[in-house]
Amino acid sequence: MDFQGSLFEAPAVEAPTFDRVERRPLTGGAWIDVCRTWLPAPDEVFTTLVHDVPWRAERRQMYDREVDVPRLLHTYAAGEPLPHPTLARARGALSAHYRPELGEPFVTAGCCYYRDGRDSVAWHGDTIGRGRTHDTMVAIVSLGDPRRLALRPRAGGSSISVEMGHGDLLVMGGSCQRTWEHAVPKVAHAGPRVSVQFRPLNVF
Ligand SMILES: O=C(O)CCC(=O)C(=O)O
Ligand SMILES: [Fe+2]
């Protein structure tokens, strides 16, 4: 065995770890976990996602007219291969780490591409499916330019916000989807940002 050589061989894809994760409890049984610079090799993942994801623009009915959804989207369903091996590793690491609390793996990967500061997502909870009635988790990995994720309690009260930087992880857990709402507000100036949201089955 070439022991000497193996000492200097980096693993093909680094596994993300959770020793730096910080939990912030919110009201009503909601919480968020944040870990800065969590994803290994984020530059490469970002470039791959921008180029290789089959991004699509969506239009949505808004009262009496159809409007553009202000961001590009693509969702990888359960069992579909992800566009970069680091994302598959990340999903596996998240599933293993949160399994005792979540009781199931993360299986889908929703991707959003915010082209500039005009792209955004309005206040909402991920309440289609089980998030409406049950505690669950949504794990977001942010890539590219930093953007603010704002959170506010549905019952009223002040909002909080977390700056999501390149490679950062933010996990919304507990009752967060049904007792709180989140948004990525428009800003005057921002470069491209991609967010990947890992969700368990039946959470949208
Ligand atoms: O871009 C983000 O970080 C959040 C996206 C989001 O909330 C969603 O797609 O449901
Ligand atoms: Fe969301």
From TrEMBL:
Pfam families (UniProt xref): 2OG-FeII_Oxy_2
Keywords: Dioxygenase, Oxidoreductase
Entry-linked SUPFAM superfamilies: Clavaminate synthase-like
InterPro entries found in the cross-reference section: AlkB-like (IPR027450), AlkB-like_sf (IPR037151), ALKBH3 (IPR032854), Oxoglu/Fe-dep_dioxygenase_dom (IPR005123)
One of the protein's GO biological processes: DNA alkylation repair
Gene3D superfamilies assigned: Alpha-ketoglutarate-dependent dioxygenase AlkB-like
Domain Fe2OG dioxygenase: 105-202
Record GO terms (molecular function): dioxygenase activity
Protein name, UniProt field: Alkylated DNA repair dioxygenase AlkB
Lineage start: Bacteria, Bacillati, Actinomycetota, Actinomycetes, Propionibacteriales
